[in-house]
TrEMBL record:
PANTHER family on file: FLAVIN REDUCTASE, FMN REDUCTASE (NADH) RUTF
Domain of life the protein comes from: Bacteria
UniProt KW Flavoprotein keyword: yes
Listed GO MF terms: FMN binding; riboflavin reductase (NADPH) activity
Organism: Pluralibacter gergoviae
GO annotation (BP), single: pyrimidine nucleobase catabolic process
Metal-binding as UniProt keyword: no
Protein name as catalogued: Flavin reductase
Residue ranges annotated for the Flavin reductase like domain, each copy included: 11-157
Length: 168
């Protein structure tokens, strides 16, 4: 087995939250599904988002300079697949679910577990990907968040059922 295959197999054992990363602006409205998102610092609040430079939408994110990290809930498996489907046009992707615009102008999924409205402050190229450093401008958190995690090449819904009482 080569190192790249072994790396991918090992990374499948590292659970990651699933998000839809969305942008809008002069270059147009685009979005993609990502699990490569993490916190960098809280002063100033900054996230890291990785995006393949060969993606159809890569240049649009760079040109717009803004994005919204829409953290998906356990109910969003189908939406995750829609935004991962390279055959769908941008307009088709955003016709699913309800979207609002936050301060940056980037699309925010109304039913997301959380939304991080960001300005792309910096970008580094590493291998096949761009690493966007995104300064958070605004945040929205669901009252009943449930997470969606990608682990062992499958989706897993996390979180308590909001209709069940918490344990004493």
């Amino acid at each position: 087995m080569n190192l790249q295959t072994e790396f991918r197999n090992a990374m499948a054992q590292l659970g990651s939250a699933v998000s839809v990363i969305a942008t809008d602006g002069p270059a147009g409205k685009f979005g993609f599904t990502a699990s490569a998102v993490c916190s960098v610092t809280d002063t100033p609040p900054t996230l890291l988002v990785c995006m393949n430079r060969n993606s159809y939408a890569h240049s649009h994110f760079c040109d717009n300079g803004v994005l919204c990290v829409n953290v998906l809930s356990g109910d969003h498996q189908q939406l995750s697949g829609i935004f991962a489907d390279a055959r769908l046009r941008s307009q088709e992707r955003f016709s699913h679910d309800s979207w609002q615009v936050m301060a940056s102008g980037a699309p925010a999924l109304v039913s997301a577990a959380a939304n991080f409205d960001c300005r792309i402050a910096d970008c580094h190229e590493v291998g096949s990907h761009s690493v966007f450093y995104c300064q958070v401008q605004a945040i929205r958190i669901s009252e009943h968040p449930r997470g969606l995690v990608w682990f062992n090449r499958r989706y897993h819904a996390l979180g308590d059922d909001p209709h069940q009482p918490a344990c004493p």
